[in-house]
Amino acid sequence: AAVALALWGTQTIRTDHASDDQFLAENAANKDVVTTKSGLQMQTVREGEGKSPTDADIALIGYKGTLRDGTVFDQNPQAPMPVAGVVPGFSEALKRMQKGGKYKIWIPGKLGYGENPPPNPQTGQPVLPANATLIFEVEMLDFRSQAEVEAMQKQAEKERGSQGGPQGGPQGLPPELQAQLEQQMRAQGQ
After folding, report:
1. How would residue 129 be classed by pLDDT, with cut points 50, 70 and 90?
2. pTM (2 decimals)?
3. How far is it, in rounded angstroms, from Cα 95 to Cα 93?
4. Closest by alpha carbon to 46, among 110, 100, 121, 115?
5. What is the distance, to the nearest Å, from the Cα of residue 68 to the centroid of all Cα atoms in its chain?
6. Is 52 helix (H, G, I), strand (E, B) or coil?
7. CA–CA gap between residue 88 and residue 132 (Å, rounded)
């Protein structure tokens, strides 16, 4: 009992001061965590249903991204993500998710931004430390093929043109999601 109590009491210290490799090795020992061949770690919090998205799809997700110390670096309750247009670890995770499911993922630095994390557009300074392990809580809200999304965008543009104003319409994405998606697709093309 004393050994178990000592290990429990040092858990936070070991986690906080462990290297990323040590942290991920200890995390992999959790019974609900699956580690893929690439090193991505994933836990299903709530099962989803149906098929999983492919590289040709755009996923609509809610997510929160943190560093190991709990610092939130990004979050969005509803964001379109081109599956093939995100870091390799996130793309791999999205292709394992199902609609309606909730997941927790741990992305090792080599599957994230590696040595070159993205800069802050205003300051030019890196937003994340190099080779940071990224931790995400993700809910897969929906996904569509890129062709379907483009057709929905064209339909929405057509409806806006005929009605004289911004409108998502029942077959188009809401204007704020369309704007996010267009911005991400432009960034992916750069």
Report:
1. very high
2. 0.77
3. 5
4. 100
5. 16
6. coil
7. 14
